[in-house]
């Protein structure tokens, strides 16, 4: 029996026995890849790790060497793994994060974040063109049903951040939207097949048939 065959048999035995030690080593190896720290002499920092203990304006990031406090401000950019804009509400404990920012000189183990990428959020940017079929407004949400040629009926969710653009005005409001209007909607969805879009921008192109 040659050496190569012995190695193959040994690996097969490990797989069949389900060695807990071997599995633990693999888990640690994968974790180490996801946990990296780079800090330049001037304090520029790039981190990757796992979010833990999310607070109102900050969270702990478990990474190589320990846990760091990541602070956010009004200028912090937040993106999904597919580079779609996300909000602080989208991130959660246990998510894999990539952070770019600056190490605080006055507070130990603290990073002021400029860019946050949540690798666990799979939102994508998408755009549709269609005709409004219904508008539903409640105290907490606004839903617009849009009939499209390629996707059928798509639900468009409006938020306080949604911008509405009218044909002859710089901006509009929700009450400007009416059934039968043709819209171009740009926003985010959970995945490529999702028929629910959170609108970032809505451009009104006129009424159907015009």
What would you say this structure looks like, in words?
There is one protein chain. This protein is mainly beta and 210 residues long. The chain folds into two domains: 35-118, Beta Barrel (OB fold (Dihydrolipoamide Acetyltransferase, E2P)); 124-207, OB fold (Dihydrolipoamide Acetyltransferase, E2P). The protein is built from two helices and 13 strands. It has helices at residues 3-17, 20-34; strands at residues 36-39, 44-54, 58-63, 66-71, 77-80, 96-103, 110-118, 124-137, 142-148, 152-158, 163-165, 181-189, 196-207. The strands form two sheets. A five-stranded mixed barrel has the order 2-3-4-7-6. A five-stranded mixed beta barrel has the order 8-9-10-13-12. It is elongated and about 60 Å long. Mean pLDDT is 83; it is low at 1-33.
Number of helices: 2
Annotated CATH architecture of the largest domain = Beta Barrel
Subunit organisation of the chains: single chain
Low-confidence stretches: 1-33
Percent range for helical residues? 10-25%
Net shape: elongated
Strand order in the sheet with the most strands? 2-3-4-7-6
Largest sheet: 5 strands, mixed, barrel
Average per-residue pLDDT, rounded, comes to: 83
Q: Which fold name fills CATH's third level, the topology of the largest domain? A: OB fold (Dihydrolipoamide Acetyltransferase, E2P)
Task: Determine and state the CATH class of the largest domain.
Answer: Mainly Beta
Number of domains: 2
Rg result: 24 Å
Beta-strand percent range? over 45%
SSE arrangement, N to C = HHEEEEEEEEEEEEE
The rounded distance between the terminal residues' Cα atoms is: 79 Å
């Amino acid at each position: 029996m040659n050496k190569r065959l012995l190695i193959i048999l040994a690996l097969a035995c490990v797989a069949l026995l389900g060695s807990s030690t071997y599995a633990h080593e693999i888990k640690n190896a994968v974790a180490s890849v996801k946990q990296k720290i780079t800090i330049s002499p001037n304090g520029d920092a790039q981190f990757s790790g796992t979010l833990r203990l999310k607070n109102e304006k900050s969270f702990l990031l478990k990474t190589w060497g320990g846990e760091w406090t990541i602070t956010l401000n009004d200028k912090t950019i937040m993106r999904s793994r597919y580079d779609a804009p996300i909000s602080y509400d989208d991130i959660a404990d246990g998510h894999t994060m990539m952070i770019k920012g600056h190490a605080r000189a006055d507070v130990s183990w603290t990073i002021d974040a400029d860019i946050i990428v949540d690798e666990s959020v799979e939102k994508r940017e998408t755009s549709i063109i269609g005709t409004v079929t219904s508008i539903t407004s409640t105290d907490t949400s606004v839903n617009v049903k849009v009939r499209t040629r390629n996707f059928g009926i798509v639900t468009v969710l409006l938020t306080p951040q949604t911008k509405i653009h009218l044909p002859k005005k710089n901006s509009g409001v929700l009450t400007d939207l009416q059934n039968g209007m043709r819209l171009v909607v740009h926003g985010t969805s959970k995945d490529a097949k999702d028929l629910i879009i959170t609108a970032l921008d809505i451009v009104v192109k006129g009424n159907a048939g015009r």
